[in-house]
Protein backbone atom coordinates (compact mmCIF):
# COMPACT_ATOMS: atom_id res chain seq x y z
CA UNK A 1 0.00 0.00 0.00
CA UNK A 2 2.88 2.36 0.82
CA UNK A 3 4.59 1.59 -2.50
CA UNK A 4 1.39 2.39 -4.36
CA UNK A 5 1.05 5.67 -2.47
CA UNK A 6 4.62 6.59 -3.31
CA UNK A 7 4.13 5.84 -7.00
CA UNK A 8 0.98 7.90 -7.08
CA UNK A 9 2.74 10.81 -5.36
CA UNK A 10 5.59 10.85 -7.90
CA UNK A 11 3.12 10.48 -10.73
CA UNK A 12 1.06 13.42 -9.52
CA UNK A 13 4.15 15.64 -9.26
CA UNK A 14 5.22 14.76 -12.79
CA UNK A 15 1.68 15.23 -14.11
CA UNK A 16 1.43 18.70 -12.55
CA UNK A 17 4.80 19.68 -14.00
CA UNK A 18 3.93 18.39 -17.46
CA UNK A 19 0.57 20.18 -17.37
CA UNK A 20 2.28 23.48 -16.51
CA UNK A 21 4.87 23.04 -19.27
CA UNK A 22 2.13 22.07 -21.72
CA UNK A 23 0.27 25.27 -20.89
CA UNK A 24 3.41 27.31 -21.57
CA UNK A 25 3.95 25.48 -24.88
CA UNK A 26 0.37 26.23 -25.87
CA UNK A 27 0.84 29.90 -25.01
CA UNK A 28 4.03 30.09 -27.07
CA UNK A 29 2.28 28.58 -30.09
CA UNK A 30 -0.69 30.92 -29.70
CA UNK A 31 1.64 33.91 -29.42
CA UNK A 32 3.09 33.19 -32.86
CA UNK A 33 -0.40 32.68 -34.25
CA UNK A 34 -1.43 36.04 -32.86
CA UNK A 35 1.63 37.81 -34.30
CA UNK A 36 1.17 36.05 -37.63
CA UNK A 37 -2.48 37.10 -37.78
CA UNK A 38 -1.45 40.67 -37.02
CA UNK A 39 1.13 40.51 -39.82
CA UNK A 40 -1.46 39.12 -42.23
CA UNK A 41 -3.89 41.83 -41.17
CA UNK A 42 -1.28 44.48 -41.93
CA UNK A 43 -0.52 42.92 -45.30
CA UNK A 44 -4.21 42.89 -46.11
CA UNK A 45 -4.45 46.51 -45.01
CA UNK A 46 -1.46 47.43 -47.19
CA UNK A 47 -2.89 45.47 -50.10
CA UNK A 48 -6.18 47.34 -49.79
CA UNK A 49 -4.32 50.64 -49.60
CA UNK A 50 -2.29 49.83 -52.71
CA UNK A 51 -5.39 48.87 -54.61
CA UNK A 52 -7.10 51.99 -53.36
CA UNK A 53 -4.39 54.40 -54.51
CA UNK A 54 -3.96 52.61 -57.83
CA UNK A 55 -7.64 53.01 -58.59
CA UNK A 56 -7.55 56.55 -57.23
CA UNK A 57 -4.69 57.45 -59.56
CA UNK A 58 -6.75 56.26 -62.51
CA UNK A 59 -9.88 58.03 -61.35
CA UNK A 60 -8.05 61.28 -60.55
CA UNK A 61 -8.47 62.18 -64.24
CA UNK A 62 -12.24 61.96 -63.89
CA UNK A 63 -14.70 64.21 -62.08
CA UNK A 64 -15.78 64.22 -58.47
CA UNK A 65 -18.57 61.74 -59.20
CA UNK A 66 -15.99 59.09 -60.03
CA UNK A 67 -14.09 59.83 -56.84
CA UNK A 68 -17.29 59.46 -54.82
CA UNK A 69 -17.88 56.05 -56.42
CA UNK A 70 -14.38 54.99 -55.47
CA UNK A 71 -14.81 56.01 -51.84
CA UNK A 72 -18.17 54.30 -51.68
CA UNK A 73 -16.72 51.13 -53.18
CA UNK A 74 -14.16 50.73 -50.42
CA UNK A 75 -16.50 51.95 -47.68
CA UNK A 76 -19.10 49.36 -48.62
CA UNK A 77 -16.40 46.71 -48.72
CA UNK A 78 -15.45 47.56 -45.15
CA UNK A 79 -19.06 47.70 -43.96
CA UNK A 80 -19.93 44.36 -45.50
CA UNK A 81 -16.94 42.31 -44.43
CA UNK A 82 -14.41 43.94 -42.11
CA UNK A 83 -15.81 46.96 -40.28
CA UNK A 84 -17.26 44.92 -37.41
CA UNK A 85 -14.03 42.99 -36.95
CA UNK A 86 -11.92 46.18 -36.95
CA UNK A 87 -14.12 47.89 -34.40
CA UNK A 88 -14.60 44.94 -32.09
CA UNK A 89 -11.41 42.87 -32.32
CA UNK A 90 -8.75 45.46 -33.19
CA UNK A 91 -10.38 48.37 -31.36
CA UNK A 92 -9.66 50.52 -34.43
CA UNK A 93 -5.87 50.46 -34.54
CA UNK A 94 -4.19 53.67 -35.63
CA UNK A 95 -3.35 52.48 -39.20
CA UNK A 96 -6.97 51.38 -39.72
CA UNK A 97 -8.17 54.73 -38.41
CA UNK A 98 -6.05 56.50 -41.01
CA UNK A 99 -7.55 54.28 -43.65
CA UNK A 100 -11.07 55.28 -42.56
CA UNK A 101 -10.20 58.97 -42.73
CA UNK A 102 -8.62 58.63 -46.15
CA UNK A 103 -11.91 57.22 -47.43
CA UNK A 104 -13.81 60.08 -45.79
CA UNK A 105 -11.51 62.61 -47.38
CA UNK A 106 -11.87 60.95 -50.76
CA UNK A 107 -15.58 61.78 -50.78
CA UNK A 108 -14.62 65.45 -50.58
CA UNK A 109 -12.37 65.39 -53.59
CA UNK A 110 -13.71 67.38 -56.52
CA UNK A 111 -10.86 67.65 -58.97
CA UNK A 112 -8.32 65.62 -60.68
CA UNK A 113 -4.78 66.59 -61.58
CA UNK A 114 -2.22 64.78 -63.62
CA UNK A 115 0.27 65.50 -60.86
CA UNK A 116 -1.79 63.52 -58.37
CA UNK A 117 -1.91 60.64 -60.83
CA UNK A 118 1.87 60.69 -61.13
CA UNK A 119 2.42 60.91 -57.35
CA UNK A 120 0.00 58.11 -56.52
CA UNK A 121 1.36 55.72 -59.13
CA UNK A 122 5.08 56.40 -58.70
CA UNK A 123 5.32 57.30 -55.04
CA UNK A 124 2.55 56.15 -52.72
CA UNK A 125 2.02 52.70 -54.23
CA UNK A 126 5.76 52.07 -54.33
CA UNK A 127 6.03 52.95 -50.66
CA UNK A 128 3.14 50.65 -49.72
CA UNK A 129 4.75 47.83 -51.67
CA UNK A 130 8.01 48.40 -49.79
CA UNK A 131 6.18 48.41 -46.46
CA UNK A 132 4.57 45.07 -47.40
CA UNK A 133 8.02 43.65 -48.10
CA UNK A 134 9.25 45.04 -44.78
CA UNK A 135 6.34 43.47 -42.88
CA UNK A 136 7.09 40.03 -44.36
CA UNK A 137 10.85 40.33 -43.83
CA UNK A 138 10.66 41.67 -40.27
CA UNK A 139 8.09 39.08 -39.21
CA UNK A 140 10.29 36.30 -40.59
CA UNK A 141 13.35 37.58 -38.71
CA UNK A 142 11.38 38.15 -35.53
CA UNK A 143 9.91 34.67 -35.76
CA UNK A 144 13.40 33.16 -36.04
CA UNK A 145 14.49 34.93 -32.87
CA UNK A 146 11.20 34.07 -31.19
CA UNK A 147 11.65 30.38 -31.97
CA UNK A 148 15.11 30.50 -30.44
CA UNK A 149 13.67 32.17 -27.34
CA UNK A 150 10.99 29.48 -27.13
CA UNK A 151 13.60 26.73 -27.46
CA UNK A 152 15.59 28.35 -24.66
CA UNK A 153 12.53 28.44 -22.42
CA UNK A 154 11.71 24.80 -23.11
CA UNK A 155 15.35 23.86 -22.56
CA UNK A 156 15.25 25.55 -19.16
CA UNK A 157 12.06 23.69 -18.21
CA UNK A 158 13.58 20.40 -19.35
CA UNK A 159 16.65 21.04 -17.20
CA UNK A 160 14.34 21.76 -14.27
CA UNK A 161 12.58 18.44 -14.87
CA UNK A 162 15.92 16.61 -14.90
CA UNK A 163 17.18 18.08 -11.62
CA UNK A 164 13.77 17.52 -10.02
CA UNK A 165 13.91 13.82 -10.95
CA UNK A 166 17.49 13.61 -9.68
CA UNK A 167 16.47 15.17 -6.39
CA UNK A 168 13.55 12.75 -6.05
CA UNK A 169 15.83 9.79 -6.79
CA UNK A 170 18.47 10.77 -4.23
CA UNK A 171 15.83 11.56 -1.65
CA UNK A 172 14.30 8.12 -2.15
CA UNK A 173 17.73 6.53 -1.74
CA UNK A 174 18.30 8.57 1.42
CA UNK A 175 15.02 7.31 2.87
CA UNK A 176 15.92 3.74 1.96
CA UNK A 177 19.38 4.05 3.53
CA UNK A 178 17.86 5.51 6.68
CA UNK A 179 15.45 2.58 6.89
CA UNK A 180 18.27 0.06 6.52
CA UNK A 181 20.29 1.86 9.18
CA UNK A 182 17.40 1.69 11.61
CA UNK A 183 17.03 -2.01 10.85
CA UNK A 184 20.73 -2.58 11.63
CA UNK A 185 20.37 -0.67 14.89
CA UNK A 186 17.46 -2.88 15.87
CA UNK A 187 19.50 -6.01 15.12
CA UNK A 188 22.36 -4.68 17.20
CA UNK A 189 20.05 -3.92 20.09
CA UNK A 190 18.48 -7.34 19.79
CA UNK A 191 21.90 -9.02 19.79
CA UNK A 192 23.03 -7.13 22.88
CA UNK A 193 19.82 -8.01 24.70
CA UNK A 194 20.31 -11.62 23.79
CA UNK A 195 23.93 -11.55 24.98
CA UNK A 196 22.83 -10.05 28.28
CA UNK A 197 20.38 -12.88 28.86
CA UNK A 198 22.98 -15.62 28.31
CA UNK A 199 25.97 -15.43 30.56
CA UNK A 200 29.25 -15.75 28.81
CA UNK A 201 30.39 -18.21 31.50
CA UNK A 202 27.51 -20.51 30.58
CA UNK A 203 28.58 -20.68 26.92
CA UNK A 204 30.66 -23.56 25.85
CA UNK A 205 34.24 -22.74 24.99
CA UNK A 206 33.72 -23.43 21.27
CA UNK A 207 30.58 -21.13 21.12
CA UNK A 208 32.30 -17.99 22.44
CA UNK A 209 34.24 -17.08 19.26
CA UNK A 210 31.08 -17.55 17.23
CA UNK A 211 29.19 -15.18 19.53
CA UNK A 212 31.91 -12.51 19.26
CA UNK A 213 32.01 -12.91 15.47
CA UNK A 214 28.27 -12.40 15.25
CA UNK A 215 28.50 -9.20 17.28
CA UNK A 216 31.32 -7.87 15.13
CA UNK A 217 29.38 -8.61 11.95
CA UNK A 218 26.41 -6.67 13.20
CA UNK A 219 28.59 -3.73 14.22
CA UNK A 220 30.34 -3.77 10.87
CA UNK A 221 27.03 -3.88 9.03
CA UNK A 222 25.78 -0.94 11.08
CA UNK A 223 28.90 1.10 10.27
CA UNK A 224 28.49 0.41 6.57
CA UNK A 225 24.86 1.40 6.62
CA UNK A 226 25.68 4.52 8.64
CA UNK A 227 28.25 5.51 6.02
CA UNK A 228 25.82 4.75 3.21
CA UNK A 229 23.11 6.82 4.88
CA UNK A 230 25.46 9.79 5.36
CA UNK A 231 26.56 9.55 1.74
CA UNK A 232 23.00 9.39 0.42
CA UNK A 233 21.89 12.23 2.67
CA UNK A 234 24.70 14.43 1.33
CA UNK A 235 23.75 13.57 -2.25
CA UNK A 236 20.14 14.38 -1.48
CA UNK A 237 21.10 17.77 -0.02
CA UNK A 238 23.18 18.66 -3.07
CA UNK A 239 20.45 17.50 -5.44
CA UNK A 240 17.85 19.54 -3.56
CA UNK A 241 20.08 22.61 -3.72
CA UNK A 242 20.53 22.19 -7.47
CA UNK A 243 16.78 21.76 -7.87
CA UNK A 244 16.00 24.92 -5.90
CA UNK A 245 18.62 26.93 -7.79
CA UNK A 246 17.33 25.74 -11.15
CA UNK A 247 13.79 26.41 -9.98
CA UNK A 248 14.69 30.04 -9.25
CA UNK A 249 16.51 30.37 -12.58
CA UNK A 250 13.59 28.85 -14.51
CA UNK A 251 11.02 31.12 -12.90
CA UNK A 252 13.23 34.13 -13.56
CA UNK A 253 13.71 33.17 -17.22
CA UNK A 254 9.99 32.55 -17.78
CA UNK A 255 9.06 35.80 -16.03
CA UNK A 256 11.59 37.80 -18.07
CA UNK A 257 10.28 36.34 -21.32
CA UNK A 258 6.65 37.18 -20.62
CA UNK A 259 7.27 40.59 -19.06
CA UNK A 260 10.08 41.92 -21.26
CA UNK A 261 11.04 39.68 -24.19
CA UNK A 262 7.55 39.34 -25.68
CA UNK A 263 7.18 43.11 -25.75
CA UNK A 264 10.60 43.47 -27.39
CA UNK A 265 9.68 40.79 -29.93
CA UNK A 266 6.51 42.67 -30.89
CA UNK A 267 8.63 45.82 -31.24
CA UNK A 268 10.81 43.93 -33.72
CA UNK A 269 7.74 42.96 -35.75
CA UNK A 270 6.64 46.62 -35.66
CA UNK A 271 10.09 47.96 -36.53
CA UNK A 272 9.56 50.86 -38.93
CA UNK A 273 5.98 49.88 -39.87
CA UNK A 274 4.22 52.82 -38.28
CA UNK A 275 6.96 55.26 -39.26
CA UNK A 276 6.97 54.08 -42.89
CA UNK A 277 3.19 54.11 -43.03
CA UNK A 278 3.20 57.61 -41.58
CA UNK A 279 5.62 58.72 -44.31
CA UNK A 280 3.33 57.22 -46.94
CA UNK A 281 0.29 58.99 -45.59
CA UNK A 282 2.23 62.24 -45.29
CA UNK A 283 3.16 61.96 -48.96
CA UNK A 284 -0.51 61.62 -49.72
CA UNK A 285 -1.23 64.60 -47.44
CA UNK A 286 1.41 66.76 -49.09
CA UNK A 287 -0.26 66.21 -52.47
CA UNK A 288 -3.75 66.78 -51.14
CA UNK A 289 -2.85 69.96 -49.24
CA UNK A 290 -2.01 71.62 -52.52
CA UNK A 291 -5.57 71.25 -53.75
CA UNK A 292 -8.28 73.76 -53.07
CA UNK A 293 -8.53 75.36 -49.66
CA UNK A 294 -11.99 73.88 -49.16
CA UNK A 295 -10.42 70.46 -48.71
CA UNK A 296 -8.11 71.49 -45.88
CA UNK A 297 -10.52 70.81 -43.07
CA UNK A 298 -10.84 67.13 -43.97
CA UNK A 299 -7.11 66.83 -44.55
CA UNK A 300 -6.40 68.30 -41.12
CA UNK A 301 -8.42 65.47 -39.61
CA UNK A 302 -6.37 62.92 -41.51
CA UNK A 303 -3.12 64.58 -40.46
CA UNK A 304 -4.15 64.39 -36.85
CA UNK A 305 -4.77 60.65 -37.28
CA UNK A 306 -1.37 60.22 -38.91
CA UNK A 307 0.25 62.12 -36.05
CA UNK A 308 -1.40 59.62 -33.74
CA UNK A 309 0.07 56.59 -35.50
CA UNK A 310 1.50 54.97 -32.42
CA UNK A 311 3.32 51.64 -32.46
CA UNK A 312 3.32 51.39 -28.66
CA UNK A 313 -0.40 52.08 -28.35
CA UNK A 314 -1.22 49.55 -31.06
CA UNK A 315 1.06 47.01 -29.40
CA UNK A 316 -0.74 47.42 -26.07
CA UNK A 317 -4.08 47.11 -27.85
CA UNK A 318 -3.01 43.85 -29.48
CA UNK A 319 -1.68 42.47 -26.19
CA UNK A 320 -4.89 43.46 -24.39
CA UNK A 321 -6.96 41.75 -27.06
CA UNK A 322 -4.95 38.55 -26.62
CA UNK A 323 -4.35 38.93 -22.90
CA UNK A 324 -4.54 35.21 -22.12
CA UNK A 325 -1.66 34.25 -24.41
CA UNK A 326 0.63 37.13 -23.39
CA UNK A 327 0.17 37.16 -19.62
CA UNK A 328 2.95 35.46 -17.60
CA UNK A 329 2.15 31.96 -16.35
CA UNK A 330 2.21 30.88 -12.72
CA UNK A 331 5.63 30.44 -11.19
CA UNK A 332 7.01 26.95 -10.75
CA UNK A 333 6.67 25.87 -7.15
CA UNK A 334 9.00 23.60 -5.19
CA UNK A 335 7.59 20.09 -5.11
CA UNK A 336 8.68 18.33 -1.87
CA UNK A 337 9.21 14.62 -2.16
CA UNK A 338 7.85 12.09 0.31
CA UNK A 339 7.20 14.61 3.05
CA UNK A 340 10.56 16.35 2.76
CA UNK A 341 10.17 19.51 4.86
CA UNK A 342 13.31 21.26 3.60
CA UNK A 343 12.23 23.78 0.97
CA UNK A 344 15.21 26.12 1.00
CA UNK A 345 18.80 25.93 -0.14
CA UNK A 346 20.81 24.38 2.67
CA UNK A 347 23.93 26.33 3.61
CA UNK A 348 25.09 24.16 6.48
CA UNK A 349 28.21 22.11 6.39
CA UNK A 350 29.36 20.13 4.51
CA UNK A 351 27.88 22.08 1.55
CA UNK A 352 28.49 25.59 2.93
CA UNK A 353 32.01 25.87 1.53
CA UNK A 354 30.88 24.67 -1.86
CA UNK A 355 27.99 27.16 -1.92
CA UNK A 356 30.27 30.02 -0.89
CA UNK A 357 32.66 29.17 -3.70
CA UNK A 358 29.76 28.95 -6.10
CA UNK A 359 28.49 32.34 -4.88
CA UNK A 360 31.84 34.01 -5.56
CA UNK A 361 32.01 32.45 -9.01
CA UNK A 362 28.52 33.70 -9.83
CA UNK A 363 29.38 37.16 -8.51
CA UNK A 364 32.47 37.40 -10.70
CA UNK A 365 30.69 36.00 -13.73
CA UNK A 366 27.75 38.40 -13.33
CA UNK A 367 30.02 41.43 -13.08
CA UNK A 368 31.71 40.50 -16.36
CA UNK A 369 28.45 39.67 -18.13
CA UNK A 370 26.77 42.91 -17.06
CA UNK A 371 29.65 44.99 -18.41
CA UNK A 372 29.62 43.08 -21.69
CA UNK A 373 25.85 43.22 -22.05
CA UNK A 374 25.78 46.94 -21.26
CA UNK A 375 28.18 47.55 -24.15
CA UNK A 376 25.93 45.49 -26.42
CA UNK A 377 22.92 47.49 -25.24
CA UNK A 378 24.66 50.79 -26.04
CA UNK A 379 25.45 49.50 -29.52
CA UNK A 380 21.85 48.32 -29.88
CA UNK A 381 20.49 51.74 -28.86
CA UNK A 382 22.80 53.51 -31.29
CA UNK A 383 21.75 51.18 -34.10
CA UNK A 384 18.08 51.70 -33.27
CA UNK A 385 18.60 55.46 -33.42
CA UNK A 386 20.23 55.07 -36.84
CA UNK A 387 17.25 53.04 -38.03
CA UNK A 388 14.84 55.59 -36.62
CA UNK A 389 16.69 58.33 -38.48
CA UNK A 390 16.38 56.33 -41.69
CA UNK A 391 12.70 55.56 -41.14
CA UNK A 392 11.62 59.04 -40.05
CA UNK A 393 13.37 61.09 -42.73
CA UNK A 394 11.05 63.90 -43.81
CA UNK A 395 10.77 63.02 -47.49
CA UNK A 396 7.03 63.40 -47.96
CA UNK A 397 6.87 67.03 -49.12
CA UNK A 398 6.01 67.11 -52.85
CA UNK A 399 4.96 70.77 -53.08
CA UNK A 400 7.56 71.46 -55.77
CA UNK A 401 5.62 69.19 -58.12
CA UNK A 402 2.65 71.59 -58.00
CA UNK A 403 4.32 74.64 -59.57
CA UNK A 404 1.76 75.53 -62.27
CA UNK A 405 4.32 77.30 -64.42
CA UNK A 406 5.89 73.98 -65.25
CA UNK A 407 4.79 71.82 -68.10
CA UNK A 408 3.54 68.27 -67.63
CA UNK A 409 6.89 66.88 -68.72
CA UNK A 410 8.69 69.11 -66.24
CA UNK A 411 6.44 67.89 -63.43
CA UNK A 412 7.09 64.25 -64.29
CA UNK A 413 10.80 64.92 -64.51
CA UNK A 414 10.85 66.65 -61.12
CA UNK A 415 8.93 63.80 -59.52
CA UNK A 416 11.24 61.15 -60.95
CA UNK A 417 14.46 62.95 -60.03
CA UNK A 418 13.58 63.45 -56.37
CA UNK A 419 13.61 61.11 -53.40
CA UNK A 420 11.84 58.25 -55.19
CA UNK A 421 14.34 57.87 -58.04
CA UNK A 422 15.49 54.28 -58.60
CA UNK A 423 19.10 55.05 -57.70
CA UNK A 424 18.14 56.67 -54.40
CA UNK A 425 15.70 53.88 -53.61
CA UNK A 426 18.29 51.15 -54.18
CA UNK A 427 20.87 52.95 -52.08
CA UNK A 428 18.51 53.64 -49.19
CA UNK A 429 17.08 50.14 -49.25
CA UNK A 430 20.55 48.59 -49.14
CA UNK A 431 21.59 50.81 -46.22
CA UNK A 432 18.37 50.13 -44.36
CA UNK A 433 18.55 46.35 -44.75
CA UNK A 434 22.23 46.25 -43.81
CA UNK A 435 21.47 48.26 -40.66
CA UNK A 436 18.52 45.97 -39.90
CA UNK A 437 20.72 42.87 -40.15
CA UNK A 438 23.23 44.40 -37.75
CA UNK A 439 20.43 45.44 -35.38
CA UNK A 440 18.94 41.95 -35.28
CA UNK A 441 22.32 40.37 -34.66
CA UNK A 442 22.90 42.72 -31.72
CA UNK A 443 19.35 42.25 -30.48
CA UNK A 444 19.88 38.49 -30.52
CA UNK A 445 23.21 38.89 -28.68
CA UNK A 446 21.61 41.21 -26.12
CA UNK A 447 18.74 38.80 -25.50
CA UNK A 448 21.09 35.88 -24.99
CA UNK A 449 23.22 37.91 -22.59
CA UNK A 450 20.30 39.28 -20.61
CA UNK A 451 18.72 35.83 -20.37
CA UNK A 452 21.94 34.41 -18.95
CA UNK A 453 22.28 37.33 -16.52
CA UNK A 454 18.69 36.85 -15.35
CA UNK A 455 19.23 33.18 -14.55
CA UNK A 456 22.62 33.70 -12.91
CA UNK A 457 21.32 36.69 -10.94
CA UNK A 458 18.45 34.59 -9.59
CA UNK A 459 20.88 31.93 -8.40
CA UNK A 460 23.24 34.61 -7.04
CA UNK A 461 20.50 36.34 -5.05
CA UNK A 462 19.21 33.07 -3.63
CA UNK A 463 22.72 32.02 -2.60
CA UNK A 464 23.36 35.45 -1.11
CA UNK A 465 20.21 35.25 0.97
CA UNK A 466 20.94 31.67 2.01
CA UNK A 467 24.54 32.32 2.97
CA UNK A 468 23.54 35.44 4.87
CA UNK A 469 20.98 33.49 6.90
CA UNK A 470 23.53 30.73 7.49
CA UNK A 471 25.98 33.31 8.80
CA UNK A 472 23.47 34.75 11.26
CA UNK A 473 22.55 31.28 12.51
CA UNK A 474 26.20 30.36 12.98
CA UNK A 475 26.97 33.61 14.78
CA UNK A 476 24.08 32.93 17.16
CA UNK A 477 25.48 29.56 18.22
CA UNK A 478 29.18 30.51 18.44
CA UNK A 479 30.40 32.79 21.18
CA UNK A 480 34.09 32.95 20.36
CA UNK A 481 35.17 36.41 19.23
CA UNK A 482 37.86 35.09 16.94
CA UNK A 483 35.50 32.84 15.02
CA UNK A 484 32.90 35.59 14.76
CA UNK A 485 35.51 38.02 13.47
CA UNK A 486 36.67 35.54 10.83
CA UNK A 487 33.13 34.95 9.63
CA UNK A 488 32.45 38.67 9.39
CA UNK A 489 35.55 39.08 7.27
CA UNK A 490 34.50 36.31 4.92
CA UNK A 491 30.86 37.21 4.43
CA UNK A 492 30.99 40.99 4.70
CA UNK A 493 33.69 41.20 2.09
CA UNK A 494 31.75 39.06 -0.39
CA UNK A 495 28.15 40.03 0.14
CA UNK A 496 28.81 43.71 -0.24
CA UNK A 497 29.58 43.18 -3.93
CA UNK A 498 26.46 43.26 -6.09
Characterization of this structure:
The chain has one domain (2-495). It contains 13 helices and no strands. 82% of the residues lie in helices and 0% in strands. Helix 4 (114-197) packs antiparallel against helix 5 (208-269) and helix 5 (208-269) packs antiparallel against helix 12. The protein is elongated. It starts with a helix and ends with a helix. By secondary structure, it is an all-alpha fold.
Topology:
Elements lengths: L1 H58 L4 H25 L5 H13 L7 H84 L10 H62 L3 H16 L7 H12 L3 H11 L1 H4 L25 H40 L16 H10 L4 H56 L3 H15 L3
Helix pairs in contact: 1-2, 1-4, 2-3, 3-7, 4-5, 4-6, 4-11, 5-12, 6-7, 10-12, 12-13
Task: Give me the strand/helix succession.
Answer: HHHHHHHHHHHHH
**Main beta-sheet annotation:** none
- Indicate the proportion of strand residues: under 5%
Distance between the termini: 51 Å
Count of structural domains:
1
Q: What general form does the structure show?
A: elongated
Radius of gyration, whole Å: 36 Å
**Overall strand count:** 0
**Uncertain parts:** 1-7, 477-498
**Which structural class should the secondary elements be placed in?**
mainly alpha
Tally of contiguous helical segments: 13
| Mean pLDDT metric | 81
Helicity, as a percent range? over 70%
Keywords: Coiled coil
Coiled coil: 359-386
InterPro entries: AH/BAR_dom_sf, F_BAR_dom, FCH_dom, SLIT-ROBO_RhoGAP
Organism: Lepidothrix coronata (blue-crowned manakin)
Amino acid sequence: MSAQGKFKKDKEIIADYEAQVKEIRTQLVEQFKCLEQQSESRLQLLQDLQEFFRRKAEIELEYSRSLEKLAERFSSKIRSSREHQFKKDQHLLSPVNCWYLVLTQTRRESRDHATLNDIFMNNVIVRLSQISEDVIRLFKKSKEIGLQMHEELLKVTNELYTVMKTYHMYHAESISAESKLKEAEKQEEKQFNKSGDISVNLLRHEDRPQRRSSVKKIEKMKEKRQAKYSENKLKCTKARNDYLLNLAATNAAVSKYYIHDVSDLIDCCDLGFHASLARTFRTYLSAEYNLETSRHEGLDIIENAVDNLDARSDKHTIMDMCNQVFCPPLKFEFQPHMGDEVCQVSAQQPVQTELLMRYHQLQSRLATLKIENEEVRKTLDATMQTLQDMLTVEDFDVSDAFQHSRSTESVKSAASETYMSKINIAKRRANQQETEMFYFSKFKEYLNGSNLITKLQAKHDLLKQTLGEGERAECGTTRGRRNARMRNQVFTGCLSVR
